[in-house]
Amino acid sequence: MTISGKQLIAGNWTDGRAGNFHGVNPATGENLEPAFTAADEFQVTEAVDAASACATEFANLAPAKRAEFLNACADEIMNLGDELLERVSAETGYPRARAEGERGRTCGQLRLFADWIVQGEYLDARIDVALPDRQPLPRPDLRSFNQALGPVAVFGASNFPLAFSVAGGDTAAAFAAGCPVIVKAHNSHPGTSELVAQAIDKAVKSTGMPAGVFSLILGSGRRVGAELVKAPGVKAVGFTGSLQGGMALFNLANARPEPIPVFAEMGSINPVVLLPEALKEKAETIAEGFVGSLTLGTGQFCVNPGLVLAVEGEELDRFIAATGEALSKVGAGVMLNENTLSGYQSGVARLRDQDGVEQVAAGEAAGSEAGFTCQAGLLTVDGKNFLANKELQEEVFGPMSLVVKCRDQQELLQAVSALQGQLTGTLQCTESELANYGELVEVLRQKVGRVVCNNFPTGVEVCHSMMHGGPFPAATDARFTSVGTMSIARFVRPICFQNYPEALLPDALKNSNPLNISRLVNGEKSSDAI
Hints:
Layout: E1 7-9, E2 12-14, E3 20-25, E4 30-37, H1 41-59, H2 63-79, H3 82-92, H4 96-119, E5 126-128, E6 142-148, E7 152-155, H5 169-177, E8 181-184, H6 190-206, E9 214-217, H7 221-230, E10 236-240, H8 243-254, E11 262-265, E12 271-274, H9 276-295, E13 307-311, H10 314-327, E14 333-334, H11 338-352, E15 358-362, E16 373-374, E17 377-382, H12 383-388, E18 400-406, H13 409-417, E19 422-428, H14 431-436, H15 438-447, E20 448-453, E21 492-498, E22 519-521, E23 524-526
Parallel strand pairs: 5-22, 7-8, 7-10, 8-9, 10-11, 12-13, 12-19, 13-18, 17-18, 19-20
Antiparallel strand pairs: 1-2, 3-4, 5-6, 6-21, 14-16, 15-17, 22-23
């Protein structure tokens, strides 16, 4: 396919009217062709209006029809072949294997959602039939299910050009829920975004979806993104990125005459707690796995392990020494763009300047060649300084981690208690320690969305039970995940019908159960007709 540099608005490819920009190869610093046009506020409005116009039609489609569309999106993305993989690598610096893996994850989650919505569980259909003879008061006929919210604005993530971008988890969940989507593409990978949008556009047309069900907008995140969030027709926002960016959208959404939910996943430092017996048994093995997790993808994951907490002593010294040895063999890595590199360098410098912080290990130094490359590293600080300084909890997006050397078990518990909300918390421990450190484990559970035991947080499996979210500031709402089939819940709301004519009810609530789904009928699960 040819990359045009245009916007896709309700099935029509059109030039933006607010200037031009280029994608950049982060490995070389060179501009990539072609130039891309940026949308103006009127084009944003056009996309939102088209989404609003078809929202009811799309929401009322049978789940099987939307499943057909989701599968077609996956098929068309695969049909892009090598062109997509090559563009991903050119715009991100990721190796081909990473691009292939992310493409597989993207298409896999589209197919997972397709299979799930046909089963109907996400609808949470409930029926309590009328009891006209009940004493002392009769009960009316009451039926409820989950209804699509309406058009969703999705913001592409810089670090996942496929899996958290144009056809990524937010878009797949919104489509599955029955919501049209307007994607604000990330400027770091505009060519990748357009290719995927071309694939979705083909799927829209081949499955007979309404044209307004999908649009792709390019341009300044601050300007175009703000217009998108403020547009009255938008009913929810999906975002993966920085705390600053997520909170900017959250504040805009809550300042509207009609506030809307912003489901923002904003990253974290993902603490790794090393307990004494585990360190004694396998400090070197833990260090090897830790370095692999820390430097995977040049540390550019929202679940990158940016903090280690442990009690000081010989075992922790062994871990630090083994980590340093492994890090020394890690080459300089390519970061996604110039801003990401600048943020990493300034974040590392800020950490180094804090009281008591020392750098104890580093990877190979970045060369002087063009491109956006960085050096991995490991810092240490004692527990007292960590507890006294909130700045040591600020995320540094990249392959740098801070080891907190606590004086004793009590200080370790204090350090875990002082943590802000996180996406993940990891425990390296023996089974007996997991039982004996019950208070610490319980505190950690209150801080995170996912507890990882004797593993590492990178590698977010897309499945039914995954929770990718957490207490603020990891996410704006700890009740929801941005990965897995539970993520559909962000884009639906329950609606109840009382004494509604049976023939006019949504199919999910009709007596005959035409969708053949499991429903809660008078408090009991059943797939039978009533």
